[in-house]
Specification:
about 450 residues, alpha/beta, TIM Barrel, Hypothetical protein af1432, 2 domains, eight-stranded mixed β-barrel, 22 helices
Length: about 450
């Protein structure tokens, strides 16, 4: 049986065996179900991530556990240690990481396994904590941690507990209740983080209530989509995508095409010369870069790079990052099934293009006309068919929502093990961050 999280936060085995041997099942971060949801500041730039843990899936008989990250550091054993070693890779340079800790892990000083300047300690059930817990929370704050409390619970908590709040959490699931809570309980000097901001209406309400930070799916909402045609720049980029999808690689022709695009050429060379690869000598030519990467890796990088050109605004970085993460997740999960099942390369494209509608603010039916995809993929993206490709999209969405029971049921329907999904998500998160560090 897998070890449940402590108060929906850091798993208990992370608290008890942060330096455990990698031979201990379920203690590597890559074998743990976890989801990260972005938290945005008032300008809609990424402030940090809220991390939600699920159980450690048991491997199927004979199932291989491969946590090796291509061109990136190998994972460190232990959930907490893994978060430290890959904090920048998985969560981006300088971002905060908000993790829930129960009373026992707080009193056991488990948060000290994480970097204080990056960690926000979420304390569920603050209204039930004894006043003595305030001493531990004050100690964490003195050592550089931040503390987050639910706004409603903080109002009922011991005064000493409430005084430790650096961040107050407001659930926007029920707008009327959120409005009442926010107006009845002044936030003081704490930041107000509105959660469940899943559409533009809730975003507007959260701002009117004084939210400094917001978390939710509003950034991928379809409600802001308007009917329009693709611009000439967008159309040219779609043509480049079509050229990339040719079955036989033509490095000479592609290098000539890229030489005419100085920005794209620079980004490719910067990517290869980044610490993620660690080549002993700098890569100086496009053809050398292409041959070193190989066609498959080059193609995936170009797909993501073209996507960033379609939406250069930094404020949509999370959509781009999530698109890349979805792409790699679906590719790796499909690969785990073995040959003859689903085409990993096709599923990479399915994930990569799954957020084009909110990214471009174009109806998917308009976008689909320009995409070099097979009909089943287009049917899944536009919602015209509930086919196997659509089932894969359901899987990745349920993973992102941390709906573990529904995710595991969906994985079972497709034939993917929960462990394979966990490893694919871990690798996809690291890969997407590495790609964007060089774009």
């Amino acid at each position: 049986m897998s070890t449940p999280p402590d108060a929906d936060g850091l798993p208990r085995d992370a608290a008890d065996s942060g330096n455990a041997s990698s031979d201990v099942p379920g203690t590597d971060l890559c074998t743990r179900l976890f989801a990260r949801q972005p938290v945005f500041d008032e300008h809609l730039y990424t402030w940090g991530y809220a991390v939600t843990f699920g159980p450690a899936p048991a491997p199927r008989p004979g199932e291989d556990v491969d946590c090796t990250l291509d061109s990136l550091p190998d994972p460190v054993p232990g959930i907490a240690a893994g978060l430290i070693s890959l904090a920048d890779t998985l969560f981006g340079q300088g971002c905060k990481v908000l993790i829930s800790f129960g009373e026992r892990t707080i009193l056991d000083e488990t948060p000290y396994a994480l970097p204080s300047e990056r960690t926000v300690i979420e304390v569920p059930g603050a209204d039930a904590l004894p006043a003595s817990a305030a001493t531990a929370l004050q100690g964490f704050r003195a050592d550089g941690f931040a503390v987050a409390l639910d706004l409603g619970e903080a109002a009922r908590a011991e005064p000493a507990i409430r005084a430790t709040a650096d961040v107050l959490l407001l659930d926007m699931g029920d707008p009327d209740r959120a409005r009442t809570l926010a107006r009845a309980q002044p936030k003081g000097n704490a930041l107000l983080l509105a959660r469940g901001v899943d559409d533009p209406m809730r975003l507007t309400l959260a701002r009117s209530l004084g939210a400094n930070l917001v978390q939710g799916g509003f950034f991928r909402s379809r409600e802001a989509i308007r009917a329009r045609k693709a611009t000439s720049h967008e159309t040219s980029r779609f043509r480049l995508l079509a050229a990339i999808e040719q079955p036989e690689p033509d490095f000479d022709a592609l290098s000539q095409t890229m030489k005419a695009d100085a920005a794209l050429s620079f980004r490719l060379l910067a990517y290869l010369n980044s610490p993620a690869f660690g080549f002993p000598e700098r890569i100086g030519s496009l053809r050398q870069a292409m041959l070193l990467l190989g066609w498959k890796i080059l193609k995936n990088w170009l797909r993501v790079a073209v996507l960033t050109d379609l939406a250069p605004d930094r404020r949509v970085r999370q959509l781009l990052l999530l698109s890349a993460q979805r792409a790699k997740f679906l590719e790796l999960a499909a690969t785990s099934l073995g040959p003859g099942r689903d085409d990993p390369d096709e599923l990479f494209l399915l994930g990569l293009f799954s957020l084009l509608e909110p990214l471009l603010r174009l109806p998917m039916t308009e976008v689909a006309a320009h995409l070099p995809l097979a009909r089943p993929l287009l049917d899944a993206l536009t919602g015209r068919a509930e086919n196997r490709q659509a089932q894969w999209l359901h899987l990745v969405r349920r993973y992102e929502a941390a709906d573990w029971e529904a995710m595991e049921a969906q994985a079972e329907q497709i034939g993917v093990s929960s462990l394979a999904a966990a490893i694919a998500h871990y690798k996809a998160s690291a890969w997407a961050e590495a790609v964007f560090s060089g774009t």
